[in-house]
Amino acid sequence: MLAPSLHPHAVHPVAAAGLFFSLPPRVFWPYFSGTAILLLGLAALFRPAAPRPRGQQGILRFGPLCFAIPMAVFGAEHFTVAGAVATLVPSWIPGHLFWVYFVGVALFAAALSLAVNRLVPLSSALLGMMILLFVLLIAVPRWISTHDNVSFTLVLRDLVLGSCSCAFAASLAPQWGKLRTDGIITVTRALVAGAMLVYGVDHFLYPYAAPGIPPENTEFSPTMPSWIPAHAVWACATGALLIACALGLATRKYARVAAATLGAIVLVLIALVYVPLTIARASSIGTGLNYLAIHFALAGAALLLAAALPRPVPQPASRALADAPKITPSPAPDSVFRPALGPE
Questions:
Q1: Dihedral sign (CA 112, 113, 114, 116)
Q2: In the prediction, which pLDDT does 117 show?
Q3: Is the pLDDT of residue 342 over 80?
Q4: CB contact set of 282 (below 8 Å; sequence gap of 6+)
Q5: Where are the alpha helices (DSSP H) in the chain?
Q6: Taking 90 as the threshold, does the pLDDT of residue 332 lie above it?
Q7: Distance, CA of 316 to CA of 321 (rounded, Å)
Q8: In this predicted structure, what is the pLDDT of residue 339?
Q9: Which pLDDT does position 55 carry in this prediction?
Q10: Within 10 Å of residue 23's Cβ, how many Cβ atoms?
Q11: pLDDT value at residue 121
């Protein structure tokens, strides 16, 4: 029997796999690490015994995985471009390369824990505190020395990522105490609301840049794909939505919905803007994959915060119900994150 003829421009799967594995190591390993964590996380989420929440709960279950994927990508970069990453370590800290490799291993461990839902309170707490240490030791000193908008963007971005991870960990650990957990979540809400307010205003000041987190690379500014019309309209609409989410996060009543909406908005931007950008610049990690990864991190952080926030208590429908004893739900996050955490 004759083999079926192929389209002259078709790419055979074997050839495509060979092309992927022939990429330079500094390009291959970040893609491989992020893809591996994605597949592990999807397998954990859709295993037969996994819960199947619907509605808003359905999107919240993807928060840890969205946060894990970029941690794996960045962890790989701590090994593939260790020399470049080492230049970010403050000069007064000895053993620069040791800390680069140590952080890379820590990022891999946190990504694996979040993806497969094992030891999540511990890993998310340690990951959040590590990111906040980066803010204190790297981002803030850089901003103080330069006073530029890019450095301020990095401070806000990492504050959001670190605080959301800590808030999620606190909500999963009853031993932290309700007062302390509520305090961490309140501070996180304020930080995320402030950052989204700044980012939202930036979309009106720079309407022709790609919507999302402002770029940290001053030599390359991503733009929306050419097939999407009215770029400025998309940017202004995104800015308005970010400001609306910031206002919602400032209130107790709408904070959970606002955080979940923020995560959904960023996921839409990933699909429309940053996946095409990554495909178009597949060989450039700094101006391609990293933009995709950091937006996955923001989406994951928003969904982690939404999961950490308590569900609103429904109001009674009549006075008779109003006089009935009220049962206050636990502020712990949704049960989808509990199976691997052990007995309560």
A1: positive
A2: 92
A3: no
A4: 27, 288, 289
A5: 13-21, 25-45, 56-60, 63-80, 82-86, 96-116, 120-134, 140-146, 149-172, 178-205, 231-249, 255-269, 275-280, 290-308, 319-322
A6: no
A7: 5
A8: 41
A9: 58
A10: 15
A11: 94
Which segments of 117-209 does DSSP mark as H helices, in order?
120-134, 140-146, 149-172, 178-205
Asked which of 59-73, 92-106, 278-292 is least confident by mean pLDDT, the reply is 278-292
Number of C-beta neighbours around residue 278 at 10 A = 20
Which amino acid is it at 293? A
| Segment 214-234 mean pLDDT | 81
The label of the residue with tokens 């029997």 reads 1
> What is the distance between the alpha carbons of residues 61 and 142, in angstroms, rounded to a whole number?
35
**43-57, 147-161, 296-310 — which is least confidently predicted?**
43-57
As a whole number of Å, the end-to-end CA separation of the chain is 63
CB 159 within 8 A of CB 192: no
Which of 216, 240, 236, 196 lies closest to 294 in space, CA to CA? Answer: 216
- Higher-scoring residue by pLDDT: 219, 326: 219
Query: What rounded mean pLDDT belongs to the chain?
Result: 84
Return the number of other C-beta atoms located less than 10 Å from residue 206's C-beta.
Answer: 15
Interatomic CA distance for residues 257 and 133, integer angstroms:
29
The token pair that represents 259 in the structure block: 């955080």
Could you tell me which residue, 102 or 230, shows the higher pLDDT?
102
| Tally of residues, the chain | 344
Q: If we measure between CA atoms, which residue out of 239, 223, 221 comes closest to residue 231?
A: 223
Which residue has 């511990």 as its token pair? Answer: 122
DSSP H or E stretch at residue 310: none
Q: Letter for the amino acid at 12? A: H
Quote the tokens at residue 291.
């933009």
Q: Is there a contact between 82 and 97 (Cβ–Cβ < 8 Å)?
A: yes
Residue with the two structure tokens 């002259």: 8
Q: Is the pLDDT of residue 5 over 70?
A: no
Give the Cα separation of 271 and 285 in Å (integer): 18
What separation in angstroms does the CA of 154 have from each of 138, 139, 160, 311?
10, 6, 10, 31
Residue 52: band (very low, low, confident or very high) from pLDDT cuts 50, 70, 90: low
